[in-house]
Amino acid sequence: QDDRSVLQAFAEYEDVEQNVYVARPRHRLKQGDIPYCKCKPLAGSSETCGASCENRVTQTECIPQSIMGI
Asked: Which H/E stretch holds residue 21?
């Protein structure tokens, strides 16, 4: 039974020549629309972004390249 289903699968196999994406295209932000971190380094702390960070509130990651205070 299993050998027969494998042979049938091989007989019905078709090469995919091109991917067709049915979802909407990925949204790309313009350079001016990319959120950046406006936090300043916290005195006496290794952290830059505290609880009042706008990015933290909107759940946007603060990465070192986006921190304006550094």
From this structure: none
Give the per-residue SS3 of the chain: CHHHHHHHHHHHCCCCCCCCCCCCCCCCCCHHHCCCECCCCCCCCCCCCCCCCHHHHCCCCCCHHHECCC
- Model-wide pTM > 0.85: no
Range of the domain at 62: 34-43+50-70
Q: Would you say residue 17 lies in a domain?
A: no
pLDDT digits (tens, 9 = 90+) for 38-60: 777 767 777 777 777 777 788 87
Helix (H, G, I), strand (E, B) or coil at 44: coil
